[in-house]
């Protein structure tokens, strides 16, 4: 059984962040490079947003939603474990 532990940290997403989709695509490209995996465990630690503004947190939710959905699609819609320890 092949398990991928994906540790992401300190996104510090800013309200005016224009590179969000590029960041997501970079993460997904790296995940695709590891090939077939039976189970994913995604761990996020640190600061989600730059200052905690509602729009920054919405962008954080969007980012995680895209990443988790892409992993699920790649892995036959299996459950993805997500653990968050925000800073």
Structural commentary:
This protein is α/β, with parallel strands linked by helices. It is built from two helices and three strands; from the N terminus they run E-H-E-H-E. The protein has a three-stranded parallel sheet with strand order 1-2-3, with no helix packed on it. Helix 1 (20-33) links the parallel strand 1 and strand 2. It is globular, with a radius of gyration of 13 Å. The N and C termini lie far apart (32 Å). The mean pLDDT is 91.
List the helices and strands and how they pair.
Blueprint: E1 3-9, H1 20-33, E2 39-46, H2 54-74, E3 81-86
Parallel strand pairs: 1-2, 2-3
Helix pairs in contact: 1-2
The computed structural class is alpha/beta
Return the average pLDDT rounded to an integer: 91
Q: Uncertain runs with pLDDT below 50, 5 residues or more?
A: none
Q: Trace the largest sheet across and list its strands.
A: 1-2-3
Shape: globular
Question: Helix content range of the residues, please?
Answer: 40-55%
> What is the element string, with H for helices and E for strands?
EHEHE
Strand content: 15-25%
Quaternary structure annotation: single chain
**How many helices in DSSP terms?**
2
What distance separates the N and C termini?
32 Å
Profile the largest sheet: 3 strands, parallel
Total number of beta strands = 3
Question: What is the radius of gyration?
Answer: 13 Å
């Amino acid at each position: 059984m092949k398990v991928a532990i994906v540790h992401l940290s300190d996104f510090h997403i800013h309200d005016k962040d224009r590179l969000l989709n590029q960041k997501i695509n970079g993460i997904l490209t790296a995940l695709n490079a590891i090939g077939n995996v039976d189970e994913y465990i995604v761990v996020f630690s640190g600061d989600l947003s730059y200052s905690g503004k509602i729009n920054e947190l919405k962008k954080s939710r969007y980012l995680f939603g895209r990443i988790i959905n892409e992993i699920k699609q790649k892995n036959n819609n299996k459950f993805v474990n997500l653990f968050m320890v925000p800073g």
